Every structure is written in C-alpha cells, then in structure tokens.
C-alpha cells in the first residue's frame, strides 16, 4: 500500500480533532465525538493494509513504526484524558495540584518500567526494526505492552507500545501545563485584584492567540523570559476571555490553508500603515 494515503488520513483526522478543541464540551461529549472518528479511520487504514500489503519491508517498517502508532496514540490519549477530567477532584487548588502531580508520577512510571523500549523510541533507533515493526517477527522472549488481542495482519510487535509512549508524552505535557497554569492563575488573580480598569476582548480569540505568540516569540515580556502559557493566561485575565490550550490554538493557526496564517497581524499592520499614510498627507 501507499503509506502516503494513510498519512493523508492521519492529517485529516488530526485536523478534525483540533476543531473539537475549539469547542467547549464535557468530557463525555468530547469522547462521544472523538472515538468514533478515530476508530472509523483506523478501520479504513486496517482494510487498506490487509487488502494491499506492502511493496517492501522498508515500507512495512515505516508504517508500523511511524504511522500506525500515531493513529492509536490519539485513541489512547482521548480515553486517558477523559478519565483524567472525570476523576479531577472538585476541591481546593491544593487538592487539584496534588491530583495532577500524582497522575504525572504515573506517566513517569510508564516510561521507567519500559526504559529499554522507551529509549529505543526516544532515540529513533533502528537496529531492531526488522523485529519490532514487521508482522511476521514476534520473538517469544520479548516483553511487549501490546493489545490483548492484536488484529491479525495489522500488528507488529512494538507498534502499540510506541502508540502508548506517544499518548503518555502528550498526557505528560498536558499535566505539566495544568500544573503550570495553577501557579500562574494564582499570581494573575492576585495582580488582577489591584487593577480597577476592566477591558473585555470582543474579537475572535484566535486573533489574541496570534498576538500572544507574537509577543512571546519577539521576547517583549520579562526580558523574553515569560512563557507562552503565562502570556496567554495573563491576556485571558486582563481581557476576560477564554483562549484555551496554547499549543492547540497554535496548531489551528498552522492548519490555515486559504488565508494568511497570521491574518490578524497582517490586518494590524495594514491598519497602522494606513493611519500613518493618512496623517502624513
């Protein structure tokens, strides 16, 4: 099979999931939309693999090492994120912080107990690819975190383990972001109490994301030491608006095709230049 077809489906699926990020939904509603989307596309990919196979062993290895794990990683992450959000305690900030820290330790434990395979994944090693990522190679003495009943003709020894690594890394980043936000939120709330002037952002929130990334990438705040999450949370508090996850909003910008990637910043530039032209006439 042509792996480019599966890669195209993967990009389209990820674009759909990003659109879900733009909508505020309950954990159950999120899962209700995301899992059928992912499983439906996986079924199409599975059918294509079973019908066409692979022209070379290199193509087979590439698929089971780099493509299939990303499909299943989304499925695993959606379920883990659902469980995390449902189990989050409705308590004090200290309780929530302790909950996230305990979950983060579980993620690190996942990497630690699979240290050899995780190192192979992290370093993009290739010495054992013919064993790990071809369907006929299944050494009996190799411990594998695999599906209980791997689909025949659609599984290699390590593809699902790699999917788990990808999903857990994403969960790790999410937990670190939540822990950082908890600290930032406290600082911002204290600072907001001292401000009497209230302004509300009434434009598209994606425009504010462009502005936030522009401020961050040019190092305009705290001598360039302020992170993008800090800048976005500060803008949220100052303008009384919900922006969402910085990296997800950035992905939404990067997926723009028909318009300028930074259309708001382009609009700002045009308006400023027009104002200067008008004043100099």
Descriptive report:
- The chain has 281 residues and is mostly helical.
- The chain folds into two domains: 3-185, no CATH class; 199-279, no CATH class.
- Helices cover 69% and strands 0% of the residues.
- It contains eleven helices and no strands.
- It has helices spanning 3-21, 27-52, 57-87, 93-113, 115-122, 129-132, 159-192, 205-217, 228-239, 246-254, 263-279.
- Helix 3 (57-87) runs parallel beside helix 7 (159-192) and helix 7 (159-192) packs across helix 9.
- The model has no long low-confidence stretch (mean pLDDT 85).
DSSP strand count: 0
**Helix share bin:** 55-70%
The fraction of residues assigned to DSSP E strands is under 5%
What is the total domain count? 2
Task: Describe the structure using short key phrases.
281 residues, mainly alpha, 2 domains, 11 helices
Any chance you could write out the topology, listing elements then pairs?
Blueprint: H1 3-21, H2 27-52, H3 57-87, H4 93-113, H5 115-122, H6 129-132, H7 159-192, H8 205-217, H9 228-239, H10 246-254, H11 263-279
Helix pairs in contact: 1-2, 1-3, 1-10, 2-3, 3-7, 4-7, 7-9, 8-9, 8-10
Give a quick summary of the entry.
The chain has 281 residues and is mostly helical. The protein has helices at 3-21, 27-52, 57-87, 93-113, 115-122, 129-132, 159-192, 205-217, 228-239, 246-254, 263-279.
């Amino acid at each position: 099979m042509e792996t480019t077809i599966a890669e195209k489906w993967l990009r389209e699926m990820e674009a759909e999931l990003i659109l879900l990020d733009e909508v505020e939904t309950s954990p159950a509603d999120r899962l209700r939309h995301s899992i059928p989307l992912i499983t439906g596309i996986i079924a199409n990919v599975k059918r294509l693999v079973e019908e066409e196979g692979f022209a070379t062993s290199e193509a087979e290895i590439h698929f089971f090492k780099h493509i299939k794990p990303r499909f299943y990683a989304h499925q695993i992450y959606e379920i883990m994120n659902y469980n995390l959000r449902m189990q989050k305690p409705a308590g004090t900030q200290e309780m929530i912080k302790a909950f996230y820290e305990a979950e983060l330790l579980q993620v690190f434990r996942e990497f630690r107990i699979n240290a050899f395979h995780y190192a192979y994944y992290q370093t993009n090693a290739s010495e054992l690819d013919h064993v790990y990522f071809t369907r006929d190679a299944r050494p009996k003495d190799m411990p594998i975190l695999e599906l209980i009943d791997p689909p025949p003709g659609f599984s290699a020894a390590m593809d699902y383990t790699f999917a788990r690594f990808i999903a857990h890394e994403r969960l790790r980043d999410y937990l670190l972001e939540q822990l950082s936000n908890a600290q930032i939120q406290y600082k911002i709330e204290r600072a907001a109490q001292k401000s009497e002037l209230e302004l509300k952002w009434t434009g598209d929130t994606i425009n504010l994301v462009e502005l936030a990334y522009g401020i961050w990438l040019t190092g305009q705040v705290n001598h360039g030491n302020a992170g993008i999450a800090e800048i976005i949370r500060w803008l949220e508090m100052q303008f009384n608006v919900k922006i969402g996850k910085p990296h997800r909003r950035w992905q939404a910008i990067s997926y723009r095709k028909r318009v300028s990637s930074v259309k708001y910043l382009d609009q700002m530039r045009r308006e400023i230049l027009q104002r200067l032209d008008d004043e100099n006439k």
